[in-house]
Amino acid sequence: MLHSDSINDNICAISTPPGFGGIAVVRVSGPDAIQIVNTIFSKEISKAKGYSLHYGEIIKNNHDIDQVVVSIFKSPKSFTGEDVVEISCHGSTYIQQEILLLLIENGARIAKPGEFSQKAFFNGKMDLTQTEAIADLIHAKSKSAHDIALNQMKGGFANELSTLRTKLIELASLVELELDFSEEDVEFADRDQLQSLIETIIQNLEKLKQSFNYGNAIKNGVPVVILGRPNAGKSTLLNNLIDDDRALVSDIPGTTRDTIEESSIINGIEFKFIDTAGIRETKDKVEKMGVERTLSMVEKASILVYVYDASTTTLEEVELDLLAFQKVAIPKLIIANKIDLVNNVEFKQHLNISATNKQDTEKVKSKVLDLFSSLAENHEGVILTNARHLEAIQLSLADLSKVRDGLNNNASGEFIAMDIRQSLHHIGTITGEISSDELLGNIFANFCIGK
Fold it and tell me: Is this model's pTM higher than 0.90 or not?
C-alpha cells in the first residue's frame, strides 16, 4: 500500500516473467527515473523526448553489462503518470540482477507487488476497475476472458457505473433539495418520478449482479460436470474431450472415486470438465464419499452433462436419475453413450454417441458450446467478473430497496437521502472514489512485482 511519504519514490522491477529468456524488461518509474537510468547508460538521455528509443550499453565501473534498448515515457503521458523508463536487455538472470542493483545504488528501490499500477491509480490514470482488469488480462487463459478484461481495462465497466452514479446523484439532489426547503413546504420532486428513477437504477444494478455467474465462469473457466451411473463411460468421455488419458478407465464399476478436473479451450472459451464418481447406492465408504462430492459439484456447475450406458440403462432409469437434478436451473446435456453396442436403436431426445469415437466427441464439444452460448444471450453489454464488485453492488441494491420502500411508505426525506448516500458510497468503492488503505492493499497485493 502506498502512503503519502512513498508516493513519489523512484521504483524499479523486472516486468517480464522470472528466469531466462530472449529478452527481459526492467521498468523504472518516478520523478527521477530518467536521471537514474542516465547515470548507468552509455548515452545522454536526460533531455531526451518522450516516446523515444535509445540503443546503448549499461555500464558498471567502466565495464559494459549489456547492450540494451532504453524506452522513455515522460510524465504525464505514461502508464503511471510519472516519468517511466523501460530497459530492454538480454534475458540472462545475471544481467537482470546487475541492472536492478545499479538502479538501486543510484536512488531507486524495488517496487512492491502492483505498485506501478497503484501509482497509475493514485495519479488518476485509471480507476480501480481498470487496474483490477490489468491483473485479469495478464491471467486470461482464453479469448473470452481476454475480451472481458480488455473491455473493463478500457473503461467499459467504469462508464456503466458512472452512468448509474450520475442517476443516483440526480435522485439524491432532488430529495435533498426538498429537505433544504422543508420549512416552506415546497415539493421539488414528484414521488412518481423518483419511483421511476429508482426502478431504473435497480434494474441496471440487478442486470450487473445477474451477469456475475456467467462472467466468473468466463474468467475462471466454465465448470462442466459430467455425471451418471458407474461404468457409463464418463471417464472415457473426459479423456477424449481433453485429448489425454487423465482419468483411469476400466470395466469395473466405481473406478472413479473422486472428482477429476481438466481444462480445454473450445472456440476461445475455457471449459473445466469435471469427471465425477458414478451415482449409485453403495456401502463402500470411500465410494460413498465420492458420490456425495459428485452431488456437491453439481451446485457449482454452469453446465450439466449426464451420461448413461444406452446398452444397459432404460429410459425409465434415466428419468429417475434426472429427477434428482430437476431443480438445478442450468443447461443440461443428456448423452446416450455406447450407442455402438445397440443395434438399430436411436434415442432421439438425447445425443447419441460412442465416447471412444473422436468424431462423436466433437459433437459433444459442439453441444456444450451451444449450451454456453444460450447463457451468453442473457448477458449482453458489461459483464461482472469480480467478487468484490458483486459484494458492493449487492450492498448498494440493499440500500436502494430501502429507498424504494421509503418512497412507497412516504418516509421522511432525511431517511431516504441517507440510504441514497449509502448506496452511492458502495458504488464509489468499486471505482476507488471511496477507498481505504486496507481495500487498496488487498487489491494490489495480488499483482505481480513489475506491474
Answer: no
Task: Assess whether 320 and 342 both reside in one domain.
Answer: yes
User: What pLDDT score does 48 carry?
Assistant: 95
Sign of CA dihedral 228, 230, 232, 233: positive
Same domain, residue pair 243 and 335: yes
Same domain, 303 and 356: yes
What is the pLDDT at residue 172?
Answer: 80
DSSP letter, residue 50: S
What is the spatial distance between Cα 323 and Cα 31, in angstroms, rounded to a whole number?
66
pLDDT at 280: 55
Residues of the chain with pLDDT under 50: 1, 4, 188, 248-250, 252-257, 282, 287
State the pLDDT at residue 187. 54
Statement to judge: residues 346 and 286 lie in one domain: yes
For 352, the grid coordinates are 447419441
Q: How far apart are the first and last CA of the chain?
A: 14
**Sheet strands side by side (includes 222-228):** 260-266, 269-275, 222-228, 303-309, 332-337, 351-352
In a domain, 280, yes or no: yes
CB 75 within 8 A of CB 81: yes
174 located within any domain: yes
For 80, 182, 214, 410, the CA distances from 295, given in Å and listed in that order, are 48, 59, 21, 48
Asked if residues 86 and 70 have their Cβ atoms less than 8 Å apart, the reply is yes
pLDDT of residue 348: 83
Using the CB atoms, write b or e for 195-222: b if 16+ within 10 Å.
eebbeebbebbebbbebbebbbbbbebb
Report yes or no on 448 lying in a domain.
no
The cell numbers describing 11, all together, are 521504483
Q: Which pLDDT does position 256 carry in this prediction?
A: 47
